[in-house]
Each structure stands twice: as C-alpha cells, then as structure tokens.
Amino acid sequence: MRTLAALLVFTGGLAAQAPDAKVETTQLPPIVVDVTRVNLLFTVTDRKGRFVTDLGKEDFQVFENKKKQTISEFTAETDLPLRLAILIDTSNSIRDRFRFEQEAAIEFINSVMRPRQDKAMVVSFDTAAEIVTDMTDDPEKLAQGIRGLRPGGGTALYDAIFYACRDRLIRDQPRHKFRRAIIIVSDGDDNQSRVTRDQALELAQKADVVIYSISTNITRTETDGDKVLKYLTAETGGQAFFPFKVQDLAQSFENIANELRHQYNIFYQPVPLQADGLYHAIEVKVPGRKDLVIRARKGYYAPRL
C-alpha cells in the first residue's frame, strides 16, 4: 500500500508525482479552471425518488448568490466517463458487518464500470488513509484490493477525502468531461484526521467531486457521524444512505450507480464575473414544480486571478 500523501504539482493541467513526498496538509493545489463559465452536474427526482429525465433547458433556472444567471449550454448527461474513489472505513467500529460491505462494494464496481471509459480507486482509512488500489479501469484489481482489507484502528475519514481529491480525482482535464464522485462506506465518526471536515469539503468542491455515503450505523439513532455524512453529501450534491440491515447495503450501492447515469449538466457564465477566490452559492430551480427534488452542489470556489 502507498500512502495518499503523494505530492502533485499541477502546471497547465498536467500532473507530476513525487512518490511518498511529505506535504503540509493545509496546502491546497492550484487547479486549472475555465474562469469564464461554471458547469453544474445535478440530478432531478420526484418525491418518491424516481429519476426525472425529460426536462429541457427552458425548465431550469440557475441563481448565483441569489442573482439569476443565463444558461448557455444544457445537456442530459448519461455517458460521461466516471472517475470514482471508493473510501472504505476499516476501523474497529465496522468490524461486525465488514465482509458484507466488501462484497457489496465489489458488486457496485462490477455493475457501474464500463470498459475503457470508467476508472476507480479504492482507499482504506483507519488511523491513516491509504491507497489500496490506484486508479484503474480493471474491476478485478479493484475487487482484489477490497477483499484484502482488514479492519482495525481509528478513523481518518477527512484525510481520505482530502487526499483522494487532491492526489487523484483532480487529475483528468478538462473537468467537465468527467463525472467525479466519492463513495464513502463509514459511520462518519472521524477521530484521526490531520485535516478538518471543512478543509476536506472545500477541496472536494474545488475538484467538482460529488460525495455519496453509505452509513454503517445500524442503531436507528442518529449519531454525530450520521450528521457529518449528511452534511458532506448535501453540500456536494450527493446523497447519504442509511441501510439498517446488512442486506440493504447492496441496494444503496445500486441506487448510487443509477444516479451516476441520470444527470443533467448546465453551463453558465457568471454575471458579474468575480475571480476572487471566494465561495459562491448556487441554486437550481424548476419553477412551478414543487413535486421535484434537485440535488446539486450548493456552490463553487471561483479562481483567483
């Protein structure tokens, strides 16, 4: 296993890796972005969770910092190449259902990945975050990595998110040509990370990563860890799943796989254009359709010029 603390240097969109280099975890990498437009991948469902796929450009409105924006491009995206990071909690707290989680994760990989298009990586985290299987399009390599995991230790969830985004998911450019997602299998109770929750979230947002989570809490009582998972997924436009029975884990993975294939994509040019390095809130609406649920990231970090 290799630690995720490998340093990437980005120049003109190309990445050079210095294996095992130690870095300060508070440093964020420069990210190559189009400063003139924002792209927004999102999902629309009805109140029963069924995907709504027949909407057009004229049905949507986009607001940035509460100011209405003009949509310049619109597509219904079903075939974007996937770049996935599957983050599996290997701390002692999930030991009792670990084997079933492994098999459910493997089934997810086999069902969602398309040959020569999609890539995924497996990251384990207990007292530290480690790459188990690096980014690959080979489902069998990913399955071998998952089957080789063994539980034990603390929980460094935020580090796993931070390093997966910084060192791998951000690589493929241009960003809008790929669908980036993190799938977390954990109870959400971080007690070992060097970075904070908000540092991890900020980097996920800068990398255009959507976070999904499958909670391993089966107590039916909401914990602080559950709240963390809900927060991370809501802020990035993903979804948190809470399967109370081990048998429901596979359904949670299937739901994520389906959502990754039912997306809309909007581009707009921010008015006013502000290259200020700050966070800008976004809201997507379908006027007159209170029966719909839109899941989209809640904002983005503008580049600083």
Describe the structure.
With about 300 residues, this protein is of the alpha+beta class. Helix content is about 25%, strand content about 30%. The strands form 4 sheets. Strands 1-10-9-8-11-12-13 form a 7-stranded mixed beta sheet, sandwiched between helices. It has a 4-stranded antiparallel beta sheet with strand order 7-14-4-16. Strands 6-5-15-17 form a 4-stranded antiparallel beta sheet. The radius of gyration is 19 Å and the shape is globular.
Briefly characterize the structure.
The protein is an alpha+beta fold and 305 residues long.
CATH class of the largest domain: Alpha Beta
The CATH topology of the largest domain is: Rossmann fold
Uncertain spans, ≥5 residues at pLDDT below 50? 1-33
**Architecture per CATH nomenclature, i.e. the level-2 architecture of the largest domain:** 3-Layer(aba) Sandwich
Separation of the first and last Cα atoms: 38 Å
The ordered string of helix (H) and strand (E) elements is EEEEEEEEHEEHHEHEHEHEEEE
Roughly what percent helix? 10-25%
